Amino acid sequence: MYDAEGGGGKLSFVGDTVSKAPGGAGAGYVVSQTRFYVDPDEAENLIKGLEKAYLELRNAKRYSDQITQVQSPGKDAYSGFATLKIRETAGDQEGGYGWANEKARLALKQTIQNIKDALAAYKGTDSAAQDALKPRD
Asked: What sign results for the dihedral spanned by CA atoms 104, 108, 109, 114?
């Protein structure tokens, strides 16, 4: 979702976010969208920054994958239960770090694409406006 109607020469784009749904325990998660505006001259820098954040999240996911494979430090029940909880917290099931990381990466990827689309639309509109103002022979 995008538009080049930010007003004042700004690009308007939509960013996705994932948050806990209202309603308490067991309510799940929802994806919401927020409209942002950026100066067209800064859009490329924003894209680069978001792409860097995406790569950082991907690297962090590798660590969480390793954590889900951790072995119990002892044979007692407490160590076993703690290890299971650590694996669950780092894991890919809803609410775990791996799950949240994946949702964040998907949201970043979509937001990056939205900015690229808005920038392309802006450049197309700007080019068309310049062509319309050129003198005709």
From this structure: positive
Question: What percent of the chain clears pLDDT 90, i.e. is strictly above it?
Answer: 61
pLDDT tens-digit map of 48-104: 999 999 999 999 999 999 999 999 999 999 999 999 999 999 999 988 999 999 999
Give the CA diameter of the chain: 89
DSSP 3-23: ES--STT-EEEEEEEEEEPSS
| C-alpha 56, offset from chain centre | 12
Q: How far, in Å, are 10, 22, 55, 65 from residue 60 at the CA level?
A: 33, 28, 9, 9
CB 100 within 8 A of CB 20: no
pTM, to two decimals: 0.73
pLDDT at 67: 95
DSSP state of 40: G
Q: Hey, what long-range contacts does 49-56 have (CB within 8 A, 24 or more apart)?
A: 50/108, 50/111, 50/112, 50/115, 51/112, 53/108, 54/105, 54/108, 54/109, 54/112
Rounded-to-integer distance, Cα 17 and Cα 46, Å: 17
